[in-house]
Amino acid sequence: MKCNACWRELEGRAISTTCGHLLCTEDASKILSNDGACPIRDRVLSKSLMKPVDINPNDEWVNMVGRYISSDIAYRSVMFYIGQKELEMQYKMNRIVAQCRQKCEVIQAKFTEKLEQVHAAYQKMAKRCQMMEREMENLSKDKQELQEKFAEKSRAKRGHMAGKTSCSNGNGSWEQRSWSSLRVWKWSWQPLHDSTQLHFVPNQTTSALSSPSNVHIVRWKLVR
After folding, report:
1. Is the Cβ–Cβ distance between 215 and 198 less than 8 Å?
2. Taking the alpha carbons of 89, 91, 97, 103 in that order, is the dihedral positive or negative?
């Protein structure tokens, strides 16, 4: 048998209440001194509602009582014993539930902390992704602008690469643009002596140039 207040094993004498519970002498004294109530039923107890009992009677006393005990008293004794076992089982269950609840609270606190950390990391990565998206948009705009500028310069360069040949009859100046591997060479020519041949000075070789009909063919000096 165990005390219904502290749930320690009862040895020797104990206190029985009229509400059907057992208390150790220490807990019974505390309840009486503080005008307290039964720890199970919350019923206010007084000294008249408590009776001392012997937890471990000797065999002689048990045999003597067993001869004269009535069936009603025996039934009440058995029910009292069953009630004590049920209270003990309920106490153990409550203690197990309390321990499980405490463990669950600890686990929940840990998971809550981890969840907050994960949420903070998620928000940080989301902000970083937004920044990277904006950076990619800016890079795409810069790329498009550079492509447009490059296309414009390429068109202008192809226009210059088309080449241009001009001739005037004043002093016989002649301009020709020759292109080789996209390198532009501009040649200026000056007349030296009348001649029916065209050649470069200093020794430069070129293909024959056809002159306009209103320009005399003269000898040219190359000036770069």
Report:
1. no
2. negative
State the pLDDT confidence band at 127, using cuts at 50, 70 and 90: very high
With contact defined as beta carbons under 8 Å apart, do 171 and 191 qualify? yes
Of the given ranges (6-20, 21-35, 92-106, 190-204), which has the lowest mean pLDDT? Answer: 190-204
Burial of 55 (0-12, 13-18, 19+ CB in 10 A): middle
Name the pTM for this structure.
Answer: 0.47
Residue 172 near residue 218 (C-beta atoms within 8 A): yes
Pick from 215, 121, 104: nearest CA to 170: 215
Could you say which of 40, 56, 90 is where a domain stops? 90
Closest to 30 measured CA to CA, from 12, 5, 54: 5
Total structural domains within the chain: 2
Separation between Cα atoms, residue 72 and residue 53, nearest integer Å: 19
The residue segments making up the domain with residue 217 are 165-223
Largest CA distance in the chain: 167
Dist CA 145 CA 140 (whole Å): 9
